[in-house]
Amino acid sequence: MESQQFHVSPEHSSVGLQNSQTLGLQEAASYVLNKFVSLGSSSLDDPTEVYTQCMALNLLPHLSDHHGDVEQPVNVELQRRALLDLALERDFFSILHSCAKSWTAALTTEGCTLSALLEWAWLKLMQLKQKKDELCQPLFDGTRIDDCHMQQLRQVHRSLAHLTCLFQVLLETSSTPMTEQGYTDLLTKCHDCAVHKNMLEVTLWCIGNKVVPQAFDESDHCLYYPVDELKKLYTQLRHEKQSIESSYSLMVDVLHDNWGVENSWRIMVMARSTHQPALSSSSTSMPPRTPAYNTVL
Predict the structure, then answer these.
(1) Which domains are delineated in the chain?
(2) 245-270: per-residue pLDDT in tens?
(3) CB–CB of 212/205 below 8 Å?
(4) Which among 216, 212, 209, 215 is positioned nearest to 233, based on CA atoms?
């Protein structure tokens, strides 16, 4: 690996490197990424240099523009998007925050605009939603997950959290005139991103507390999640909430009574020839509150 070397030009050195010095791949990658962070949004005004260095170090996937049978250099717009992807994946939110501040100013570099940033962010959100669905599917079909799978789930959650913060920053600080419809659209995007971030956060909590994966134990063919403990917890919460407000509902009861969870459970039970975990029952469930927003898990 050391045979591959990366030369750092002196005019871009922030650590006093000499022109004759060369770095190993790991050190060079660290240097380029640190430079990327320190430059912030200004590195995207003309992204070619940082993009080329990142490509040389395999920090970015291969991108190309194809015109017929001829492969053309990647255009500047795609380079910017690739670097924004890199910032998101590496948790470099300071770069995204810098873009949100500078790209919404009155005078910006061509291509570094609010609309360009929103287009990238929305496209990325769609990709993350799809990846989230793909990663969550094994949690409910009996497939066992490994540490690599969990790492990917956590990475998607962090990326959704960064995008949510980005949308919030744009809502709060944008100096670019925005129509009422534009503001509403941005608010909707922010809400949509936050919903998916929260959903994945709950999913990770459920994994950590062994509520999912919904897989069978090989020894006794029982579900992983602790039914007796959950029943005890929910019963206690029902009594506590009922003593304060008789119409207060637990979220599990709202799901059970109103959203057809019981029927879905029966179908799953029939398919797996096992018993339905009795997390709630009509004798202990409290009537659902309308509207059902004032609920707890």
Answers:
(1) 1-90 (no CATH), 112-225 (1.20.58), 227-296 (no CATH)
(2) 766 777 767 666 665 555 555 544 44
(3) no
(4) 209
